[in-house]
Amino acid sequence: MDNVEFGSKETAIQVEKKTDDFYGPDYFDKNENKNKKLASKAAVICYGFGDLASQFIWTFVGSYLTIFYTDIVGLTPIIVSAIMLGARIFDAVIDPIMGAIAERTRSKWGRFRPYIAFGCPGLALFGVLTFINPFGGSSKAGIIWAVVTYTIAGILYTVVNIPYAALSGVMTEDADQRNKINTSRNIGMNIGMIIVNSCSAGLALFFSGTGSEVATGHGYMMTALIYSVIAIPLFLVVFFTSKEYVAPGHNDSKFSLKATINNLVCNKYLMIVTGIMALQMTAFMGRIAVCAFYVIYCLGSFTMIALIMTIPSIGAVIGSLFVPYFAKKLGKRNVLMYSMLIQAIGLLIIYFSPFNNMAMVIAGCCVFGVFNVGFPMTLSMVADSVDYMELKTGIRTDGTAYATYGLATKLGNALGGSIGILLLSAFGYVANAQQTPGALRGINIVVNLIPALLFIGAALLCLLWRMTDEQADDIRIALTKKKEQVN
How far is 409 from 427, CA to CA, in rounded Å? Predict the structure, then answer.
């Protein structure tokens, strides 16, 4: 490892020890913050369009593909589970490779922006193809089609969204602005969820034909097509408004999967936030994957999907407006931890609500939604972990680090969809039939109780994160000094 200079030469081991102990608030001259490169206001606002676009495709896939496979295509829960888990196992290899490739990309548009522009049309296309059943029924050809289209859709999500996530860490050198950028993303995500969750059921029914009480395959496919057409220009807005300011580390070496994984595993703070994200995403995205079963069978109405799944997203948009303020006052870790604990309380309110007590169900949804503000904090914490590792090793791993976020998102969606549907089957769920009381209780457990417990687990895991925001600022200043000395 290279020596690093902070007034006097220190060995890498000494630097690592100091990094673990952290520098005091007065160790660096804070006036150097004036020289930070900042993203434009337009870039901060428009960055959220990328996650808005992603929700049009991936939230629709996550919310409706499971029920499309079971109730339209006719696949058994075991087959659906195998398809989703198999695709995510494949992602465990693909995601870090994509991150490493993006880190080593050198183009006139930067390292990450090209993948957003050139990958989004493919993602949009396969977002539609997953909702097409050309072979009619659960034949072997139909199963193969489902495997191929879902897997490729996941790969293309990786190609676009890992560079998109990594982009937030290189658009600015200012920690507060990173929080604003990731808050913009969270707002975009939740606006996308509001639109998808409020409009999808109605659109699917509209395109299913007059008199349809539930959506048909054609209804799902046409809805996916509309969302995909909208998503492409939104991705392009991010490409044209953003710029990459943070210089790459020494990542010009040839790609090595072993070295890439080693860089990730050795970054203790990245491992902590990855664990938090895995639980957080399994609770959140996993719940989305099976929430339609709760609304249709427990609450008794397909059309109420729009209401129940939109309320949390509206609350999240409102709550996100206050995130930068509370992040400054309480710190990123505490905002994340407390928000997940209160989300768990909201889900417990829903879980204990009688199915005919809509006021109590809606109250729980509101509590769950208003405090759905943890995602910007986890993204900013990933950026802090990247800075921490760069100071220790001299290597900046934006792409591979943010690959953990993309993998956690898809893993959570898959676990919720695959294990969730298996649990529903174990509780006695039968597609397109009147459910038994035991099956209804099982649906409620899978959709509300289990995610609540996962949120509590993620909140407890936050206690392992010992890096304060002030210490993260010191690390960034140290990196700036180091680069200035090299130049």
Answer: 26
Residue 60: closest CA among 315, 304, 305, 236: 305
The identity of residue 242, as a single letter, is S
Would you say 398 and 410 are in contact if contact means Cβ atoms under 8 Å apart? no
Angle formed at CA 166 by CA 264 and CA 90, multiple of 5 degrees:
60
CB 77 within 8 Å of CB 421: yes
pTM: 0.69
**Helices within 305-449 (DSSP H only):** 305-320, 323-330, 332-351, 358-370, 375-393, 398-426, 437-444
What whole-number distance in Å separates Cα of residue 421 and Cα of residue 416? Answer: 8
pLDDT in tens, 432-449: 788 899 999 999 999 999
What phi and psi, each to the nearest 5 degrees, are found at residue 10?
Answer: -135, 150
* Tokens 């499309």 belong to residue: 68
Taking the C-alpha atoms of residue 148 and residue 130, their distance in angstroms, rounded to an integer, is 9
Angle between helix axes 113-129 and 140-167 (nearest 10 degrees) is 160
Q: How many degrees, rounded to 5, is the angle at CA 162 between CA 365 and CA 69?
A: 55
**Using one digit for the tens of pLDDT, what is the confidence trace for 220-232?**
999 999 999 999 9
In whole angstroms, what is the distance from residue 296 CA to residue 429 CA?
A: 12
Q: In whole angstroms, what is the distance from residue 322 CA to residue 119 CA?
A: 33
What's the rounded Cα separation, in Å, for the pair 194 and 197? 5
- Give the domains, in start order, of the chain with CATH numbers: 39-486 (1.20.1250.20)
* CB distance 48 to 188 below 8 Å: yes
Return d(Cα 412, Cα 457) in angstroms, integer: 14
Neighbours of 214 (CB within 10 A): 16
